[in-house]
Design a protein that fits this description.
Length: about 160
């Protein structure tokens, strides 16, 4: 399946990258080193993560979308599909994202999980099982308060979410 996707600029982005949001700086260094060694070529980093310095130096939670959010990895449909495919729920969730055309950014500071998370390109979820994911109740996992600022592009959460809050 897709090892990378073509962006609207024509550039390519790897389908799997390492997320380092909320990772402590020293853990980020070790995680990025392990990820590059495992074959990752996409590291998600930003100044707002407060570990950007550590994320550029090596280059030259699991399943939970946020604080008190529902765990994707414990969703009964994800678990059921994982059991049928003899994969972990994490593998199934990541693979679903790729099959839906998204670049995925699993976050882990654990070297063995970092290696496991990139091992999702040589298999796919069959169509009948992909259809099961549409049964999962959709919820907003992130409110995005960080994007709201009176002098920024979004004055309220309603502006950010186009009134769908």
């Amino acid at each position: 399946m897709a090892e990378s996707f073509v962006l609207n600029t024509g550039a390519r982005i790897p389908s799997v990258g390492l997320g380092v949001w909320q990772m402590q700086p020293d853990a980020a260094v070790n995680a990025i080193y392990a990820a590059v060694k495992a074959g990752y070529r996409h590291i998600d980093c930003a100044a707002a993560y407060n570990n950007e310095k550590e994320a550029f130096s090596p280059l030259g939670s699991p399943g939970s979308p946020g604080i008190n959010g529902p765990s994707v990895l414990k969703n009964p449909i994800v678990v059921s599909v994982a059991d049928k495919l003899q994969k972990t729920p994490a593998h199934v969730a990541l693979r679903w994202g790729i099959q839906m055309g998204h670049s995925v950014l699993p976050k882990s500071a654990n070297e063995s999980r970092i290696k496991e998370n990139i091992d999702i390109l040589d298999w796919s979820i069959p169509e009948d099982l992909m259809a099961k994911f549409s049964e999962i109740k959709q919820v907003r996992l992130l409110r995005a308060e960080f994007a709201v600022h009176p002098q920024g592009g979004y004055n309220t959460l309603e502006d950010f979410w186009d009134g769908e809050i």
